[in-house]
């Protein structure tokens, strides 16, 4: 297998003899000029073009001959020279008079967010004042439609849509690894961010949105090192740090880094359940302390085989050791006389030792013509292993004690092949097709042992092995056609086939899954004029049963609560249509409708005074919604302000456990993000974010309203940046209530305010450039 993979990626293809022109564009005071356009023409016809990187370096290749070489900046010609190209030419440093040519055409420092068919594209990042001395993850939180959790552990679109994070269009081993990478990569190294709320046919059909972060690959960067350190004080203290290295020379480009975290957290929860049939109430109070260490190293290597070919390799890992100690007190009351009947105490130690994830990617890309038509191929390998021990001690009111061990060890292995073909046409049309195959193997070895005073002895009724195998195959095709400068269509179709089998060793019980699905997508873009644009989107998706719910093990949580999985869960299918109106570049209004079949969720049911947590389907849903958001720079860029607001209405009709389900809910949310710069050079910035959610009702209950307030004050000292701040300042405890004819429950989760200090140091090739905003100038796409 390895032999064929190497042949596939390294097989030599036809090459053409090329000569190079390279150099560097600087101002007369030696500041680099980024995004200068380098042009090579012959007899008035443009043959080649490129842009200078953040250090002003450029390089283009062409066959031998006589050409006219030009440098332009936002349409303004700055330099011209005739070149007889017989061999490689090094033009050295080309100095441009800043005072006369560049003073009035500096790039605007405001980032741009624009709807492009089925996705939002965030550009001009490296020139935005919001990217200065920020990590990519910190910068991502300045995008109006993106919300990053204050602790950096999760990202959502519009505060509700979970996302899959890609870097350069590729999975890097899961969101935990991706978030660690984004916390160390400087924002100024990002070329573009794509935000896709409802992914089209190019992506695996799932209900998650997608955030694709595209890293700028500079051609000449001797090195850049960024060091980060942060300390967060909540109930306990957590420390984390990261290091990032970027290097490129000639045909090589390397980025690597490592994220380290040492955490300690406290959680308090209070649950109350009433069984109306027995008239009994159970109160469960839980105090938990979690300690853990996580290490996430990664490296990405790209090598240019020729002008038209590149190969690359990525390796990322995550190593974790975590332990949660939980004290649980269960009190039992008779509702009629409100008297305590009994009380049980449980101690639980949940220890995960030597958990690790390893992810490999090999990729190859060949450009086929002058229009950048290409074939790209990827081979991915993913492996994760964990050793989990759940020690439990239950002390009962009658003086008896029970000790047992649950040891669910899981191993996951995935191999994936993917090839995409992209054909670009002279009329700017584009055809994209692709094929994708993956094979997964998951083994769960669950040991359940009762303590006999010396050791834990296996209980044959509970100990078991569950093996799950899955084959996935997909084909897709997208076609984009621009009928005019103001109207275009993107149409796509995706076919997916999934076959899976899960086998329980004890009784040979088998779970079989086999399904085929077609997922069409459509996007229409109409530009009314330069300041008004309409986009219509249609997409379809499927939420497949998570593997964790197919595994039929029963987990004991406390003396009277268990977790039961459901291997017969049905997939949820969803269709979405939305209309987006963009006006004056800064404002976006969205209207949407979604139809969903076979919804599933977690349930808490009280059965014979035992609390059973499980997952099941419960009905179909119709959702309507509207979103409005904008971002503006005010007071000569000293105040960057963004606002987002969502209103969602949905109804659900169905049945669970022979009880009708009827939900009519309206959810309102808004978020305000402010970045205030206090000095002329914008070295001091105060970031203030406020959010409000009116609460919502779903199948699992009604949740109370939520407020959030986060503060961050930062100061730059040349290559050093320090910030202090706090988050969850206004966040209340979360309360969830539910009631039906059989039982009711009330759950409360306590939150703790958090304060932090962080430091960042950049060593090496750091761009230092004052960016001037001029509203009347042309913006950079």
Automatic annotation (TrEMBL):
UniProt keyword terms in alphabetical order: Cell outer membrane, Membrane, Receptor
Domain Outer membrane protein beta-barrel: 368-761
Keyword RNA-binding appears in the UniProt entry: no
Any single Gene Ontology cellular-component annotation: cell outer membrane
Gene3D superfamilies given in the database record: Immunoglobulins (2.60.40.10), TonB-dependent receptor, beta-barrel domain (2.40.170.20), TonB-dependent receptor, plug domain (2.170.130.10)
Protein name: Outer membrane receptor proteins, mostly Fe transport
Keyword Membrane among UniProt keywords: yes
Main location (coarse class): membrane
TM stretches of this protein: none
InterPro entries, per database record: Beta-barrel_TonB_sf, CarboxyPept-like_regulatory, Ig-like_fold, OMP_b-brl_3, Plug_dom_sf
Cellular location(s): Cell outer membrane
Xref: Pfam families: OMP_b-brl_3 (PF14905)
